[in-house]
Write a structure and sequence with these properties.
The complex is a heterodimer of chains A (171) and B (139).
Chain A (H helix, E strand, L loop, with lengths): L1 E6 L4 H13 L3 E4 L10 H13 L5 E6 L3 H8 L6 E3 L3 H11 L3 E5 L5 H13 L6 H11 L15 H8 L6
Parallel strand pairs in A: 1-2, 1-3, 3-5, 4-5
Helix pairs in contact in A: 1-5, 2-3, 4-5
Chain B lengths: L1 E6 L4 H13 L3 E4 L5 H14 L4 E6 L3 H8 L6 E3 L3 H11 L3 E5 L5 H13 L8 H10 L1
Parallel strand pairs in B: 1-2, 1-3, 3-5, 4-5
Classes of the chains: A alpha/beta (171), B alpha/beta (139).
Chain lengths: 171, 139
């Protein structure tokens, strides 16, 4: 399977371990970053994973940040993405079986690499179990976002990064 | 503080437990439940976006569907929440307005604590705001 994986600077080491686990299982892994521990912003990587999934360039996505919440919101806001951010195997399997989730995520500061491996393994093995009700809900979710430039425009964050560099965002 | 809460049938029992717990702590609970999880979640989203309520809680079986639905709305950050760290950190860093609880995953005591952590924790703002602005640019 072709799998995109992304993270923010908080959990790069965890992401690398998760990517290695997937590679060992024979999957082709596209790591969209971030690649180090220098402060960056989770929507960049959530969107990158989401775009690869939504455009069919990969089969599935994996998104990890501190809690998993930020980066998975970043992925979920891409049209066509159905992300789940979980802490256990049961929820990951339900996300696939009930809603055909195409991105799986978790918090690298929340669950350890052992649990992440279990989650990834179970999610990849699980299959969507369609019913008319589930098909209808998935269609409803997919249709929530009108066509916009999120997928096609790689510069949507430029203005915010410029403001960041200018010191606009400070604690 | 007003708190919007909703569940479908899978989450109804846990929702009532959390609702009573927060009401006993002095929160004004507004119940938007519906048998359909899409409608229940969107009711809470509307309460946040149009009625000035700042916190919402949606309960179903796993918390997966409410997250998928709520987060597809412009200006909404939703957190599926199963443990303590996320319940408060997602307020501090993500300015999350809605949490999703899974009745099959978190038991009563933990669920009530997660909800309380979420409603009482404030957003840190500052450097974190660039990420929220980015999320709002995506959708």
């Amino acid at each position: 399977m072709k799998i995109a994986i992304g993270c923010d600077h908080i959990v790069t080491d965890i992401k690398i371990k998760a990517a290695e686990f997937l590679k060992k299982q024979g999957h082709e892994v596209i790591d969209v970053g971030t690649y180090d521990f220098i402060r960056t912003h989770y929507p960049i990587y959530g969107r990158k994973v989401g775009v690869l999934v939504a455009t069919g360039q990969v089969d599935l996505g994996v998104c990890i940040c501190g809690t998993g919440i930020g980066i998975n919101n970043g992925a979920q806001k891409v049209k066509g993405v159905r992300a789940a951010c979980v802490t256990d195997v049961q929820t990951a399997v339900a996300a696939k079986e009930h809603l055909n989730a195409n991105v799986i995520g978790c918090g690298g500061r929340v669950v350890g690499i052992g649990t992440i491996e279990y989650i990834l393994d179970a999610f990849l093995k699980a299959e969507y179990k369609p019913t008319p009700e589930r098909d209808a809900l998935i269609k409803k979710i997919d249709n929530m976002i009108p066509d916009n430039d999120c997928i096609t425009n790689d510069h949507i964050f430029d203005e915010y990064l410029k403001k960041w560099d200018e010191g606009f965002y400070h604690d | 503080m007003k708190v919007a809460i909703a569940a479908n049938q899978d989450g109804a029992r846990l929702k009532d437990v959390v609702k009573k717990y927060l009401a006993d702590k002095g929160y004004e609970m507004v119940d938007f439940s519906d048998d359909d999880i899409f409608t229940a979640t969107m009711n809470v989203v509307k309460a946040i976006k149009e009625e000035g309520i700042t916190r919402g809680i949606v309960v179903d079986d796993y918390g997966v569907a409410p997250f998928m639905i709520a987060s597809k709305n412009h200006g909404i950050v939703c957190a599926p929440t199963y443990e303590d760290y996320t319940s408060s950190m997602t307020r501090h860093h993500n300015s999350t307005q809605i949490i999703a609880l899974g009745a099959n995953i978190t038991a009563d005591v933990l669920s009530c604590q997660l909800a309380e952590n979420f409603v009482k924790t404030e957003y840190d703002g500052g450097r974190h705001q660039i990420r929220i602005d980015m999320l709002n640019r995506e959708l």
